Structure formats: C-alpha cells, structure tokens
Amino acid sequence: MSTATTTAVTTPVMPARPWLTTAIIFAALLTVPVWLPMLGGYTALAGRVLVLGLAAMSFNLLLGFTGVMSFGHAAYFGLGAYGAGLTLKYIAPSTPLAMVGGVLLGGILGSLFGRLIAQRRGVYFAMVTVAFGQIAFYVTYSWDSLTGGYDGLRGFSRAPLNLGFTTIDITNNSTYFYYFLLFVFAVATGLQALLLASPFGRTLVAIRENERRARFLGIPIERHIWMSFSISCCFTALAGALYALLNNFADPMGLHYSLSGEIVIMTVMGGMRAFWGPLIGAALFVVLQDYISSMTVNWMSFVGLIFVLVVLFFPRGLLGMLQKGTQR
Amino acid sequence: MLQLVLYNVTNGLIIGAFYVLMALGLSLILNLSNVINFAHGNFLALGGYIAFVLTPFLGYWGALIVSPLITALFGFAIERLMIRRVYSRDPVYSLLLTFGLAFIMQDACRYVWGPSGLQTSIPDILSAPLSADLFFITWYRIFMVALVIAAVSGLFAFLRFTRVGIRIRAGTLDLDTVSILGVNVGMLRSMNFAVGSLLAGLAGVLAAGQVGLNPNMGDDLLMPSFIAIIVGGVGSLTGTLCGGLLIGVAGALTTVFWPAASEAVIYVIMLVVLILRPRGLMGQEGMMS
C-alpha cells in the first residue's frame, strides 16, 4: 500500500553546528523588545511567533522526528487554551496553575485519542486526526454555558507571577510578559531537545527512517508512536495555554482545522527536518499573515498561495535548504 | 409523531445523499492517489456557482448537466497542473497543497460572487409539494434523491464495466502492477480526479437549489464526508455509501429526540466504530494502516 517515499538523503537530527544556531536564535529572541519596535513591529507579534513556534515545534516531534502526520493539532492547542482559560476563570487566578490546567486537558485527551489511532499511518492517520479535531471544535463550540460558544471564552486574565520573594507583573507589562513567554519557550524546547537526544528520541527517528526495520529490531512501534503523539499533544497544549494567556481570551477558531493546516505549513516552511525549522516557519508565517491581512481583504487567497508555493517550490523549507547548502 | 419521524428521516436521507456524493468523490481520490482533497467542498461550491452562471443561458436542465462537467474539467486541470507533482513525495505535501487550494478557491468565489448567499431558482414543477399530508416532501427532494441514486449507480456501473473504471479499481489495489501492465497511471489518476470532481459539482448544483449558494457552502459537508469514509471503511466505496447514509439518517433521527445532539451523534458513531471496528464497517483489514 505504501508508495515509496524515501527521501534519499539521511539528514541528521541536529544541524552541523547546533550550538551556533541555538545561540543565534536565542540572541535574536532575547533582544526582541529592542529591535522589533525599530522595524515597526509590536511585542505581541513576537509573542504570537513564540507561541505558534512552540506549537509547530511540538507538532514537529511527530511529523519531522517520528514521521507521523497529524492534521488535527489545533485541537490540542485549543484545548490547552480553554484549559488555561477555564482554570483562571473558575479555579484560581494563578498563571502557573493555568498552564498546568491547559497541559492536562490537551495532554490527557490527546493521549486517550492517540491510543485509538496508533496503528494508522500516512493519510489515514491524518484523516482520523482531522475528524477528532473537529469533535473538539464542535464540543467547544456547542457547550455555550461553559465555553462561551461562538464568542469564545472571556472574563479571565493572566495573574501576576508570585515567586515568593518578589512578584513579577506580567499582567500589564508586555515586556515582562514577553520574557515570561520566552522563559517557558526555552524550557519547553530544551526538554524537547533532550528528549530527541535521548535513546527514546533516537528510536523515534529510527521509526521514521524505516519502520519495518525498527519493528524487526523488537521496538514496540505502536507504543512509541502513541507516546510521541501524547508528548507532542502536551507541548502543543502548553503552547495553547500560553496563547490564552497572551490574549486573555480563548477562541473556538483556535481548535478549527484551518489552524491545524497552518501549524503544518509553518513546520514545512521552516524545514521539518531541522530542530528550529518550525520556529523560523512560524516567524515567517505570522509576519506574512499579519502584513497581508493589513493590506488586503483577500488575505485568504494569499495565505493559500503561500501553501501552494511552499509545497511546489520550497518543499524542504528554509532551514532545510540552508542545511543542504552547508553539507556540501 | 410519525409525521415528525418521517419528516426527519426524509431530511436525513437527503443530507445523507449529499454526504454520499461528496464522500464517494473523496474516497475515489483517496483510494487511487492517496490524497485527501481538502478542496473538495470548494469543488462543490464551484459546481453550484457555475450552474448559477449558466442557468440564464442553458436553462435549469442544461446547467444541471453542463456544470458538473465543467467542474470535472477544472478538477482534471488542477490535478494535471499541481497535484500530480507531489505524488512521489511525502503525503504531507499533497494535504498542504489541497489545503491551500481550498483557501484560494473559497476566496475566489467570495471575490467573484460576493460573500453573501445567492438564491437560485428551481423549475416550478419541482418546487410543488407531493401532497397535503406530506407537505414537507417537495418534488425537488424526490428528484434530488432519484438523481443521486442514478449518479451513484452510474458510478458503480462505470467502475464495474468500463475499461477506465476497471483500471481505477485495479489501481486502488496495486498501482505498481497496473503501471507495469502498460496503463498510463498518470492519465488514470487525472481521470479519476475528474470523476471525483464531477460528483462534487453535481452535489453543488443540487445543494444550490435546496439551501442557496455561498462561498463556504461545502465546508459543512467536508467533515461529515471524512467521517462517512472512516465509518464505512477506507478503501471500500460501498462502505462509503453506507457510511454517508448512516450518519445522515442518524443525525436527522437524533433531531427528533434531542435536537442539540444532532451533529454530535455522527462524531459518536465515528468514535464507536474506531473503538469497536477500527477498519470501518466494510473496510478491509490493513487498508487503514
């Protein structure tokens, strides 16, 4: 059944000089409040890039490093957002607790669902994940009394961070909040890097490269894919929780499958075989989308055009092309 | 009560008929080309709009025939120009491609025909109700169901008796062998895509007469069509047919007893099928993996 789609080149998990790339990226991210206003951007835009970048990197644990294609990751992103929002609104005004709430809601549901679909591959996996994503969308959309339905969940706001000895006001100060986002982003991506470097992560890459051979080596493929899916969902839900904190709002469109598609295109655009690729893709996509939607009402055509052009002409993504360049 | 149930069963059959037309086209493309056509709902909308444009020139009946054909031609061109270029790559690319196409086509329809809905007219003879008791069954609904039955029978006959149809079925099972036997697989896939688009275009023309036209009219049908395929079993067109009718009628019957859950029930059916019979009602073992 499977058509031979072997990418002839075996790309390494990490780029040739991982520390250099990482250092450049974090240097750029740390200085955002300095240089972004000079270019006419605003800090909330950088926050969006970080959040969607984290979502895309979490998604890429599956697509790029396990070789399994989910097309419903917006569901876990949105569930994370609603989990955080509901925690803040009904349980306690605590930002860390909201993040835990979001991760639990998205992670548990993702994990339960992942159990059902771990045997599926390829487009069938994609189709079932899309359908499940729509369940999450539909339930959130219809459960008016709890989620606010079509209008989204409002009436909560992120709480100041209480560290015991001091309180950081991330509620009103957008720069502090940006650094808070960056801190969470750094911890999460650090965990992802450790995970990929661990034997478990290497096993996932082995499954991606040759599932049959991995199976013959005695690796329980379904269990690994399930675990990879669950972990990916947890991180995506964390990104969703951060998104709710960023906007003080959770939106049913955050669960819609069009966002799933956008997460995938960000990943592919930046380079799905590069660790930082999805972040670069998210930055490109968010900035382009922001620019285009301010220029024309027909922004949908342009976004669609980005999809088509990337697929037809830049399938390796930005970092993928750069990596190819340095290898030669 | 009986009338209420009957009313909703009729509704369910009609909605199910739309699901079936959509899902059969999607299923054909999925089985042969391993592509999920996210733009399928937009092909449906396009079919409806083309009929709207043609009606003043060709009349209702002319548009009904010509519009699906033009949609098919359009699908053929899209397949030739774009989709065929990603067959040899990771399936993620074909998904992204049709996803982007869906955005572009929806926006194009909005640009050309405006964002608000358009009403289409159907011949008077079809808009009359069947009888005073069965006021909810218009001749148009009967006509729609009859036409869908004819189209589905036609499709199955095409796949069973024509050379192209037999090759499509063979290609679904083992494309490599079909290719080795000297069949032009590229052309086969293009024609298969065109047949799928034809069904979507026909559904569009029919839906326009029932609910009017708007640029995202296909979106509400896309997800249930996926579910029809999953429930029926990937790889089985008969399964897709049954799946579409099942979720259509189940949704409508739920409306009688618990209106709020009418949409939820199709998702519940999908989950139950995925848990109890992962390959779908009529799917073959191993097709989904």
Explain what you see.
The complex is a heterodimer of chains A (328) and B (289). By secondary structure, chain A is mainly alpha-helical. Chain A has a single domain (18-327), classed as ABC transporter involved in vitamin B12 uptake, BtuC. Helix content of chain A is 71%, strand content 1%. Chain A contains 15 helices and two strands. In chain A, β1 (161-162) and β2 form a beta hairpin. Residues 1-11 of chain A have low confidence and may be disordered. Chain B has one domain (2-114, 133-276). Chain B has eleven helices and no strands. In chain B, α1 runs antiparallel to α10 and α6 crosses α8 (185-211). The mean pLDDT of chain B is 87. Chains A and B meet through α6, α12 and α14 of A and α3, α9 and α11 of B.
CATH secondary-structure class of chain A: Mainly Alpha
Proportion of beta-strand residues of chain A: under 5%
Weakly predicted, low-confidence segments of chain B: none
Beta strands of chain A, count = 2
Report on the biggest sheet of chain B.
Answer: none
Could you give a quick summary of the protein structure above?
The complex is a heterodimer of chains A (328) and B (289). Chain A is mainly alpha-helical and 328 residues long.
Which keywords apply here?
heterodimer, A: 328 residues, mainly alpha, ABC transporter involved in vitamin B12 uptake, BtuC, two-stranded antiparallel ribbon, 15 helices, 71% helix, disordered N terminus, B: 289 residues, 0% strand, globular
Q: Topology of this protein?
A:
The complex is a heterodimer of chains A (328) and B (289).
Chain A (H helix, E strand, L loop, with lengths): L17 H13 L1 H4 L7 H21 L9 H19 L3 H23 L4 H21 L1 H4 L13 E2 L4 E2 L5 H24 L1 H11 L1 H6 L4 H27 L9 H14 L6 H19 L3 H15 L3 H11 L1
Antiparallel strand pairs in A: 1-2
Chain B lengths: L1 H32 L6 H42 L9 H23 L10 H4 L11 H23 L1 H11 L1 H6 L4 H27 L7 H14 L4 H21 L6 H13 L13
Helix pairs in contact in B: 1-5, 1-8, 1-9, 1-10, 2-3, 2-8, 5-6, 5-8, 6-8, 9-10, 9-11, 10-11
